[in-house]
Input
Amino acid sequence: MRLFETTDTGSVEIEIGEDLQARHEELAERNRQLFAERGIRAFDITGSVGAGKTSLIAGMVERLSAKHGVAVIAGDVATTHDAERVAGKGARKVLQINTGGMCHLDASLVARALGQLPESGIEVLFIENVGNLICPSFFPLGAEKRIAVVSASEGSHVIEKHPAMFESADVVVLNKMDIAEAVNVDMEQPVADLEKVRPGIAVVKTNCLVGEGVDDVLRALELA
Amino acid sequence: MHEYSIALEVWGSVAAAAREHGGGRVRSIRLELGVLNLIEDEQLNFWVEALAERDGSPGLELDIVHVPGRVKCRGCGAEGECRVPEGTLPYFAMGAMRCAECGLGDVDIVGGRDLKVVTAEIETEGRNGRGE
Output
């Protein structure tokens, strides 16, 4: 920190140069390194409340846990419902982070949770972000890939309405395909919108409740 | 979005610096803010001023220097400033960004998310002189 010259008006201008954005990115990068050191492939799952994040994770855990050490970190403002739903599907460890009001997970919360995971034996980590298509866009966790889950009951213009989230996503899951007709939603619209915003991005259609399409998601994540 | 938590970070950083330099009232802060943070200037201003007043620096002025967005094309690799059409919220521009070279809509954001506390002006109560 350097001191500049004193002005006549009895004040001094100091150079602070504190890069707060870099701090967030450094924390994410540190997580990335920790994951690499421990041989963990980490995935950040985002989506609105009720989109199907937990169902998707439960399905993926079920399919992977026979052959791989899988762990789950579930983020929510409150309750342990999500962690409870996934527990019993075969994961070695399921942790719940309650943010107590914060609308997204950030790298520091994930780093803290990492400390509670077994030192070895975890090969895949699913991080379920807080239900929110806006705020998590701005907070990288250091995961290998981000999966954004969108469900039919949210309407057909979700992609257009939340460009920042889909800009930061690597795979998009279009869930609850089975009820699209019942809620009068054209699911080709999000497919077309994604093609405009992120040409070539992997899009997988699912009905996670019955496990339809979950294998395709695993393939898109190079986990199968 | 998150104007309050950003205000907390910014004020925290400046308040610590002020304490190290005599603890006088902070008159102004210069902040570099990337437009792709989608921060509402007025909201941020409000909260930084409110926090400053709470901590003995009423009347603080927040000088926000906007940093434009920069994108890199995933297709041809071209990198450049992304221009937001007049009247368009940067948020919606994100969905419509195109590479200026090849026209592809698949771009990575490589700049415009800055959040840097650059300088702060602190009262010294009659002290004089230069220093490093």
